[in-house]
From TrEMBL:
Protein's name in the database: DoxX-like family protein
Keywords: Membrane, Transmembrane, Transmembrane helix
Membrane-spanning segments: 12-33, 53-76, 83-103, 115-133
UniProt key word Transmembrane helix: yes
Organism: Roseicitreum antarcticum
Domain of life: Bacteria
């Protein structure tokens, strides 16, 4: 693949990453400004997990979410810096997930909701986007 070649799946994957991190960003803003009631369909008590976060964990979560969104936008713009930004986002989400598992509160099941699924997705999906961006950089699709 030449450096100027862009595979058709690059913008599609970047848009999926923007959607993923964008939804996390919307949720983050709604939780931080106490508007979780506006999201119909979320289980009762969903926002309590965010309230239990220590300040440092909330900051790391913000780095993961907003960094991931920035990395996804950079990937859409074919900027190779997306790889580093998405790596930081992945690591931040991993730290938050590990803290969630090891904290005394731990992930608590809510009616009709499996917190383990969210924790796994919170780490695996950003890792996949990071690996994808890294492979696109190695292939020369990100300049």
């Amino acid at each position: 693949m030449t450096p100027r070649t862009r595979p058709a799946h690059l913008p599609l994957t970047a848009l999926l990453a923007i959607l993923w991190f964008g939804l996390w960003a919307v949720e983050y803003v709604l939780v931080r400004y106490d508007h979780m009631g506006t999201l119909a369909g979320l289980p009762e008590g969903w926002g309590l997990w965010f309230d239990a976060l220590p300040v440092w964990t909330g900051a790391v979560l913000a780095v993961g979410i907003w960094g991931g969104l920035l990395g996804a936008i950079m990937m859409l713009a074919r900027d190779r810096g997306a790889v580093l930004i998405l790596a930081f986002a992945f690591l931040a989400m991993l730290v938050v997930a590990v803290w969630s598992v090891l904290s005394p509160a731990g992930p608590r099941p809510l009616p009709g909701f499996d917190p383990w699924l969210v924790l796994v997705a919170q780490v695996v999906v950003p890792a996949l986007f990071w690996f994808y961006a890294r492979s696109m950089k190695q292939a020369g699709a990100l300049a």
